Amino acid sequence: MKPVVSVLNAWSCVVISAFAIVILSVLGSLYKSEHHGFTGSETDPEDGAAVAASIFTAVIVYACFFVFCAFQAYLHMRSRRGGAISLS
């Protein structure tokens, strides 16, 4: 199987997706727990659970990006070593 994206794009996507998963998971859990810093003032959203659901949907999307890009990076590493079956 050949990689679809370049090696730099694959590794960049892996790193960005990993950071996004961590940061958005923390934000989602803070909204879900109705943390007063995020839902306490007049300009903040009233329904923290709905905001958390939206954020966790984004976490799922970033997790899919992470898996796809990590597989692309793996394909680049495998092709650099000589493919799945190396004769040397």
Explain this structure.
This protein has one domain (7-82). The chain is mainly α and 88 residues long. Helix 1 runs antiparallel to helix 3. The longest helix has 33 residues, at 48-80. The mean pLDDT is 89. It contains three helices and no strands. Helix content is 72%, strand content 0%. Pfam families: V-ATPase_su_f (PF23489). The chain crosses the membrane at residues 7-31, 51-71. Keywords: Membrane, Transmembrane, Transmembrane helix. It is found in: Membrane. This is MARVEL domain-containing protein.
Q: Sum up the overall morphology in one term.
A: rod-shaped
Instruction: Characterize the largest beta sheet: strand count, sense, and whether it forms a barrel.
Output: none
Number of strands: 0
Tell me the count of domains: 1
| Computed CA radius of gyration, to the nearest angstrom | 19 Å
How many helical stretches? 3
Poorly predicted regions:
none
User: Percent of residues in beta strands?
Assistant: under 5%
Order of helices and strands: HHH
- The N- and C-terminal alpha carbons lie at a distance of 20 Å
What's the average pLDDT? 89
Secondary structural class: mainly alpha
Helix content estimate? over 70%
Keywords: Membrane, Transmembrane, Transmembrane helix
Transmembrane segments: 7-31, 51-71
Protein name: MARVEL domain-containing protein
Organism: Aspergillus thermomutatus (Neosartorya pseudofischeri)
Question: Summarize this, please?
Answer:
Its main location: membrane. The chain is mainly α.
